[in-house]
Write a structure and sequence with these properties.
Elements: H1 37-42, H2 44-47, H3 59-64, E1 66-69, H4 75-93, E2 103-106, E3 109-114, H5 141-153, E4 164-171, E5 176-179, E6 190-196, E7 199-203, E8 217-221, E9 226-229, H6 231-235, E10 239-241, E11 250-257, H7 264-268, H8 276-284, E12 287-291, E13 302-307, E14 310-315, H9 320-323, E15 334-340, E16 342-344, E17 347-350, E18 353-356, E19 360-361, E20 364-369, E21 385-392
Antiparallel strand pairs: 1-9, 2-3, 3-4, 4-11, 5-10, 6-9, 6-11, 7-8, 7-10, 12-13, 12-21, 13-14, 14-15, 16-17, 17-18, 18-20, 19-20, 20-21
Length: about 400
């Protein structure tokens, strides 16, 4: 690896992979200075515009829209940051990080959301939704001072611009599937800081077992580096890391982004891939609901605040006997978790229940269990389930 330093940051010129499935032989050419901050601010909204992915990704356009800074943090700074990473991971494993949705763990990867979180995963592309405030941990002070502040002082981002951070802790065998960061939620550019072991970030590659589509382009990410994706590379082509792109036992990346503030209706209340009936149900069930059945003795009442495709569960702080039918109890309730509404066919799925139009009314939602064989069948032969009673449009309406 070789690069020439200038007064600005580095822009990489990796060798294009083409049909080379092994992804070897990546190098860097000379660096060029970063564009001035005025241009950065002027093009932010334009770069965040949504659009169709390129059918045949252009390697040169990918390359021209990347800015790469190897060695942005020196080895001593990396060691300090990595010590804080380990401390944060320990706190997450011990359940000491605030926010019900801060930590998301899979066998080979743990994801930590800070600042602002969002729903993601298979089947949600184009339908990602922001999590409510408080659902994830605030950005830690160490991350603000050691990672974000140096980027601000070097002029790579404006002060206060980063309000959402995702920290990914990858182990051997893990990957991040091909994706595009949701342009409906996040402005451009997208910044990635890398720590511990290096890896390759591949653009336009398939993740099928045969690797039928090789990368159109690959970027080598070293320890202490930062990569800025903008324009074409951020919006027109997918990026990801396959298991073979990992070059060590552990890699931690920090994805630094800026949230686009938009009305909830434009973010969460219409989904092109859902049926007309499912979209109609989403729009109709927004608001605050409660269980129709009184909780058992010693339990607390539960309320459900529906915002877009997210359902926030609120547990009453009062005894069940006094809070069961009193909607004012929801104002003093404690957040106990978040469920996801999923449009399926002509209805919605939530927490093991299915809701369709025949079982909807403005006053009550009659959810039917998806697995009725686990329950006793009702005497009239109907499928058992659970019911929510409408309380109000939101917490401010009660």
């Amino acid at each position: 690896m070789a690069a020439t330093e200038t007064e600005g940051v580095y822009t990489s010129r990796p060798i294009l992979l083409g049909n080379n499935k092994q992804g070897s032989g990546i190098s860097l050419d000379a660096a060029v200075p970063l564009a001035d901050s005025n241009k950065f601010m002027a093009t932010k909204a334009e770069n965040a515009a949504n659009g169709e992915l390129a059918t045949n990704p252009c390697p040169m356009k990918i390359c021209e829209s990347l800015t790469y800074s190897p060695g942005f943090w020196n080895p001593q700074q990396c060691a300090q940051i990595e010590a804080w990473i380990d401390d944060t991971c320990w706190r997450g494993a011990a359940g000491l990080l605030p926010g019900a949705n801060t930590v998301d763990t899979t066998p080979c990867r743990t994801k930590y959301f800070f600042g602002n979180g969002y729903t993601y995963g298979r089947g949600l592309r184009g339908r990602e939704a922001l999590l409510p405030l408080g659902a994830v941990c605030p950005i830690p002070d160490w991350l603000q001072h050691l990672v974000i502040a140096p980027l601000e002082s070097r002029g790579m981002i404006p002060p206060g611009w980063v309000d959402s951070v995702v920290m990914n802790d990858y182990r051997t065998g893990s990957s991040i599937v091909a994706h595009v960061d949701p342009p409906r939620l996040f402005a451009r550019p997208i910044l990635t800081a890398s720590f511990f072991e290096p890896a390759r970030l591949v653009f336009g590659a398939s993740f099928d077992p045969e690797r039928k589509t090789p990368p159109a382009y690959a970027q080598f990410l070293t320890r202490g580096s930062v990569l800025m994706m903008d324009g074409y590379s951020a919006n027109k082509v997918t990026h990801g890391i396959r298991p073979e792109d990992m070059m060590g036992d552990r890699r931690v990346s920090m994805i630094l982004r800026h949230l686009i503030v938009a009305p909830p209706e434009s973010l969460t209340l219409y989904y092109p891939d859902a049926s007309a009936c499912a979209n109609w149900l989403v729009s109709q069930i927004q608001g605050l609901w409660r269980d129709a059945v009184a909780p058992s003795t010693g339990s607390r009442s539960r309320f459900y605040l529906v915002r877009g495709l997210l359902v926030t569960i609120l547990m009453s702080s009062q005894p069940a006997s006094s809070a069961y039918k009193d909607p004012r109890a929801a104002k003093f309730a404690v957040e106990a978790g978040i469920w996801q509404l999923l449009p399926v066919g002509e209805g919605l799925v939530c927490n093991g229940g299915f809701l369709d139009e025949p079982h909807f009314s403005p006053r009550a939602l009659e959810w039917q269990y998806l697995r009725p064989w686990k329950c006793n069948t009702e005497e009239d032969g109907s499928v058992p389930g659970f019911t929510w009673i409408h309380v109000g449009d939101d917490l401010s309406s009660i």
